[in-house]
Amino acid sequence: MSVQVSEFNSNPSKYLALVETQDVMIVRNGRVFAKLVKEENDTLSDIRSLYGILADSELSRMNDEEIKAVIHTERGSRLL
Question: pTM higher than 0.85, yes or no?
């Protein structure tokens, strides 16, 4: 769903509720300015899905706690 910035600003709770079921694109001057998506908290499974691509990387030999530590260091605790 797309919504103009002015409409989002006048009724943010409506669009935050919609994020539960669909992505919300916030449009300004005809271009997507921001995208609201539901947080899935699935970082570890995203990283594990890369193992085929990163088979020879250090990441492929780490356990979940070690991966979380790397994520925390590189991106911050907000992604865990």
Answer: no
